[in-house]
């Protein structure tokens, strides 16, 4: 667990400024102000998988016909596992001519390329099986996985609770060092970093098309990643 700690002690007769309000510090109202950043982690429970394919052909009509067959085979296979249409989102589809200077296929008489991909959102536990189903149905350009949380706010709240509890322990330590007893919490503010700074990583893999003789291969060994959220708490405690 990564932990960054910044402690500020305020024991003066001046005015203490905070984000949302002003607290007066005097002999009757002495305080300790602590700023703590802490983190909480949990294993992702949602996976958004990128599945797709690339097909080549000697002419436009033949290339498109092959692509249509592969496209519908992949969708049929995914639906056959119980994945609803609402969980599938088109990402890209394109039919392009291959220039003579493109050295990928022209030597074999190939002149057209078709590419299509989708984002498929499923429970994290189903990621490997979903990817396996797509690949064995012809999705030869697949593998990216974005790991997510079904309830991101719960993890943010857990990080904030953890930071506040840590702030209180730090304040208690300093109050004891000053021969005082820590009093009640006077003020606290929570600053959560923008979403996207943690987690959501991609597992990038490309798999070649799988022949019909290999469709009994087992799914890949895929493990969901841990998602982290960080919270910064600024807390002011009274000193008794």
How would you describe what is shown here?
The chain is α+β, with helices and mostly antiparallel strands and 240 residues long. The protein folds into 2 domains: 4-43 and 151-196 and 230-239, Translation Initiation Factor IF3 (2-Layer Sandwich), CATH 3.30.110; 49-148, 2-Layer Sandwich (Alpha-Beta Plaits). The protein is 24% helix and 35% strand. It has 3 helices and 10 strands. The strands form 3 sheets. Strands 1-4-10-9 form a 4-stranded antiparallel β-sheet, covered by helices on one side. Strands 6-7-5-8 form a 4-stranded antiparallel β-sheet. A two-stranded antiparallel ribbon has the order 2-3. A hairpin with a 4-residue loop joins strand 2 (15-17) and strand 3. It is elongated. Mean pLDDT is 79; it is low at 1-21 and 192-215.
Major sheet size, sense and barrel closure: 4 strands, antiparallel
How many distinct folded domains? 2
Overall form? elongated
* SSE order, one letter for each helix or strand: EEEEEHEEHEHEE
Tally of extended strands?
A: 10
Radius of gyration: 28 Å
Mean pLDDT: 79
Strand order of the largest sheet: 1-4-10-9
Report the span from N to C terminus: 33 Å
Assigned CATH class of the largest domain: Alpha Beta
The CATH superfamily label of the largest domain reads: Protein of unknown function (DUF541), domain 2
- Annotated CATH architecture of the largest domain: 2-Layer Sandwich
